[in-house]
Amino acid sequence: MQDRIELAVSTVVFSLRPHPETGELTLWLPLVRRIREPYEGRWALPGGPLAPEENLVESARATLQRTTGLTPRHLEQLYAFGDVDRSHSADAAGHARVVSIVYWALVGEDEDAEAVDGENVEWFPVDEIAEEAEPLAFDHGVILDYALRRLRAKVTYSPIAHAFLPEEFPLAQLRRVYEAVLNRALDPSNFRRQILAQGSVEDTGRRQTGTAHRPPKLYRSAPGRSRYALTIQETDQ
Amino acid sequence: MQDRIELAVSTVVFSLRPHPETGELTLWLPLVRRIREPYEGRWALPGGPLAPEENLVESARATLQRTTGLTPRHLEQLYAFGDVDRSHSADAAGHARVVSIVYWALVGEDEDAEAVDGENVEWFPVDEIAEEAEPLAFDHGVILDYALRRLRAKVTYSPIAHAFLPEEFPLAQLRRVYEAVLNRALDPSNFRRQILAQGSVEDTGRRQTGTAHRPPKLYRSAPGRSRYALTIQETDQ
């Protein structure tokens, strides 16, 4: 039985970047290599102990700034993980029990351009993490799975996917965000019809410049639409 | 600046009971009178420090059992509240900073029948709490407002309202749950049409016994419907 309970704040940061092999847009996140026990040498979510003078969200923001140089617009509390045995190290006893309050950040395309890697920080495509020989430190693999599940659910009932995009975007770009998050191809015309029917985006009246012969229309988030229901249909291809 | 950060788990417990004046079904919750500083004598959400050997949800369950005698089926984590100045007492310094991980419980009609009051525990209609001369202890008024907002939002996009009901229920009873949660009258035929269109309930083939000349049909939760969108329409009356 442990006497001390410590509090940490960690953050799951999702950004969309091309997959290193396929070139398709895919989910990436930054991890930090642990330089001390427990789990020395393993990858972990960015985070750290809650400082006495910091609010929870300030702690998440400070960690993000320190590890990635980013201050994402979309940062929200995800869940508190506090099982008694979650922070046990495989090799060493005597570490305090840690309860982690986890935030998640979604990084916009325009924001991601400003990302800088900190020391011992590396970005990974989400699907590569599961293939790593060594699991993430602590229960961070469980936390990452939970964050992915929540993200995949939430894009179907809220406009949260817009957080990955700049203010104005063609519908095809929004679809690619959904495809990256859900990790599967979607039927373009079904997607277009459903999104427009939901009223979560509105036509800006402008078209994308400097592109094709018939440049696509630009859309933006419609104000006041915080909830909707999307029945995601897969493409037949 | 404080050095120590303590962890507490508190729970917002919602149940539906008749309003003491109108007799209409309305939201109630149990509060605990504080018997020591800070905020001695004020009403607070049931809760307490996280014990070293307890998981978070176990702590919430133990508090509920101790204060209300209940072990509700529906208990989930709501949010962690941890602002630096949230636990300051109005009158005394020197208390540690407390981060509270808050759960919420929805008590089914059948469960509520087993509620027993603990010492210094009292149930209040939600709308009476705002009228109390003294605000709740700590930031518990803020937490209660947050829980109410979340509950009112969540009934429109998930079948969470079913948690207040026994396994089988007439649609009119489900409507009264929505009316109590949203604190307004709903148009019966619109409500019926929308709920049936969502597919979140299914006909049991049975009717309520021992009631009227034409006893109402009994419905139950349809399996696998965890999300839907309900456009709540008010009655014209």
How would you explain this protein's 3D organization?
2 copies of one chain form a homodimer. With 237 residues, chain A is of the alpha+beta class. Chain A has 2 domains: 136 residues, Alpha-Beta Complex (Nucleoside Triphosphate Pyrophosphohydrolase), CATH 3.90.79.10; 65 residues, Orthogonal Bundle (Arc Repressor Mutant, subunit A). Chain A is 26% helix and 27% strand. Chain A is built from 6 helices and 9 strands; from the N terminus they run E-E-E-E-H-E-E-H-E-H-H-H-H-E-E. In chain A, strands 1, 2, 3, 4, 5, 6 and 7 form a 7-stranded mixed β-sheet that branches. The first copy, chain A, has a two-stranded antiparallel ribbon with strand order 8-9. The first copy, chain A, is elongated, with a radius of gyration of 20 Å. The termini of chain A are far apart. The C terminus of chain A is likely disordered. Chains A and B meet through strand 5, strand 6 and helix 4 of A and strand 5, strand 6 and helix 4 of B. Chains A, B: It comes from Nesterenkonia sedimenti. Chains A, B: This is NUDIX domain-containing protein.
